[in-house]
Amino acid sequence: MKLYSIFKFVFQCVILFFIINACNRNAITGRSQLSLFSETDLQQQAFTEYHSILDKSKIVPLTNSNTEMVKRVGSRISKAISVYYASKGMSNQLNGYKWEFNLVESKEVNAWCMPGGKVVVYTGLLPITQNETALAIVLGHEITHAVAHHGNERMSQAAIAQGIQIAGNVYTKDNSRANELFNNIFAPTAAVTYLLPNSRKQEYEADHFGIIFAAMAGYDPREAIPFWQRMSKSGGNKPPEFLATHPSDENRISQLQKYMNEALTYYNK
Asked: Domain count of the chain?
């Protein structure tokens, strides 16, 4: 098997990967998006996983003031999202969402939202947010990941990439050198040219719509800037942006500033 044939096959695989990933258009973001899985199935899986995680975690009691804050912020943002989707005539996009917000005792600086509206905030995040408005910025961001179907998209891309990887290994199985070349070229190429850039694109979308939803819920979106500045200072060494799943702190803040006027129109209303 000639080297040219291997490179040609890899190139065809990458092109196929790009074509497949441009099949659906997200109703809110307007971006082409791959969605191979049923949202209903993902929500059911998420509900099961969510309760499994809670069973193994130390949930902060409802009487705690921080828990009250998490639930208050979550309730306001989820209502804002319902209003936003209704204004676009797309309330059906939120079918199956059963919002739930919990504060979990952990040093991890993180929060997340599963498909279907199951949300966890870790106590380790609160020293960075420092106030209710910054927490709203975070929850707006995390909830956007869920309602924009980013999880479905990532899983679909991973499934396609894995399928092409398997096909490539079958195609080159009789030539160890060709097989080695394929595996050394396809995976890094797919990651750097599509998977990682798309992950960063999802982050920008979550930032963009996250501050809009926070603003609609009555929180000043300008708090996003000092919050991400604090996050930047709290982090350790990070890889170059082109090798990272998230934008650089500088680029994230720069983009947030570009989104700010739009978000403020919702806040000022």
From this structure: 1
Residue 249 pLDDT: 82
pLDDT at position 232, please? 86
Q: What is the 3-state secondary structure (H, E, C) of the chain?
A: CCHHHHHHHHHHHHHHHHHHCCCEECCCCCCEECCCCCHHHHHHHHHHHHHHHHHCCCECCCCCHHHHHHHHHHHHHHHHHHHHHHHCCCHHHHCCCCCEEEEECCCCCCEEEECCCEEEEEHHHHHHHCCHHHHHHHHHHHHHHHHCCHHHHHHHHHHHHHHHHHHHHHHCCCCHHHHHHHHHHHHHHHHHHHHHHHHHHHHHHHHHHHHHHHHHCCCCHHHHHHHHHHHHHHCCCCCCHHHCCCCCHHHHHHHHHHHHHHHHHHHHC
Residue range(s) defining the domain that contains residue 66: 3-22+35-268
- 100 within some domain: yes
The set of catalytic residues is 142
pLDDT of residue 248: 82
Instruction: Specify if 234 maps to a domain.
Output: yes
Residue 195 lies in a domain: yes
The pTM of this model reads: 0.81
pLDDT digits (tens, 9 = 90+) for 24-54: 777 778 887 877 788 899 999 999 999 999 9
